[in-house]
UniProtKB/TrEMBL annotation:
InterPro entries: C-N_Hydrolase (IPR003010), C-N_Hydrolase_sf (IPR036526), UPF0012_CS (IPR001110). One of its GO terms (molecular function) is hydrolase activity. Belongs to the carbon-nitrogen hydrolase superfamily. NIT1/NIT2 family. Residues 1-247 form the CN hydrolase domain. This is Carbon-nitrogen family hydrolase. Keywords: Hydrolase. It holds the Pfam family CN_hydrolase. PANTHER family: DEAMINATED GLUTATHIONE AMIDASE, NITRILASE-RELATED.
């Protein structure tokens, strides 16, 4: 299986419309790969809190439309990163007062929405995303022809219980778009490898380049195999990281070193 992680650069001097067009073009350039991944909140910047409301959009808004077409044009599975989603259901007639969510969109090679995931763990403690956005409630997996993908976003990476639930739901490949800050880059690499080792799964973690609202981004998108070995890692700048990996290695790893079978504390072993 071949995957391309688009480590997209987000800068304040580029309009959201321009970013959409540029991201769509980059996705189309990946025709021939199986899975393409964009980072978290690339339309606004993960730390550009003041833009979440003004640049929010419904689930089937302009980013949805642009990414659906790009996935179809390229004939790829596309994890289109995440957007600030405005949920207008139950709000006023304009929909302007509906809750916000950090929502990931996953498209099939035909451009159909295969899944969406609202980020469960919101970053910021008493500010930013943690107070501006609602929290998702359900782990989400997506079945691709070659592998079952478990979805998580950025700060979720710090919460291993989410990944256990994804493995219980059949996940073999964990895809994590992020807007991770440079000052905690060592955590990014460490946690990506830890999630791979403890769940005996592939981790595809796609970050951003550039600076979001004055916060330099870590970049260093990374692909890790089920033994925790780094298959590929990007640098700090905008880059497309393309890697080939064998999804069958998940099953052989879990058979050769069946640590997941020894789980206790009331947790069920993963489905086989």
């Amino acid at each position: 299986m071949r995957a391309s992680l688009i480590q997209f650069r987000v800068d304040e001097d580029e309009s959201v419309d321009s970013r959409r067009r540029r991201a769509a073009s980059l996705v189309r350039d990946q025709a021939g790969v199986d899975l393409v991944v964009l980072p978290e909140l690339w339309t606004t910047g993960a730390f550009a809190y003041k833009r979440f409301g003004t640049e929010s959009e419904p689930l089937e808004g302009p980013t949805y439309e642009a990414m659906a077409k790009a996935a179809s044009d390229a004939g790829v599975w596309l994890h289109a990163g995440s957007i600030p989603e405005r949920d207008a259901s139950g709000s006023g007639s304009s929909g302007d007062d509906g809750p916000l969510y950090n929502t990931s969109l996953i498209f099939s090679p035909s451009g159909e929405l295969a899944a969406s995931y609202r980020k469960i763990h919101r970053f910021g403690f008493d500010r930013g995303e943690a107070v501006l956005m609602g929290a998702g409630t359900e782990p989400v997996t997506v079945r691709l022809p070659e592998t079952t993908v478990g979805l998580a976003t950025c700060y979720d990476l710090r919460f291993p219980e989410l990944f256990r639930s994804l493995v219980d739901a059949g996940a073999e490949t964990l895809v994590i778009p992020a807007g991770w800050p440079e000052r905690r880059r060592s955590h990014w690499t460490l946690l990506a490898r830890a999630r791979a080792v403890e769940n005996q799964a592939y981790v595809l973690a796609c970050g951003t380049a550039g600076t979001h609202a004055g916060v330099p981004q870590a970049g260093h998108s990374i692909v890790v195999d089920p033994w925790g070995e780094v298959l590929a890692e990007a640098g700090p700048d905008e880059e497309i990281l393309t890697v080939e990996f064998d999804p069958a290695k998940v099953a052989t790893t879990r058979e050769e070193f069946p640590a997941l079978k020894d789980r206790v504390l009331g947790l069920e072993p993963p489905r086989r």
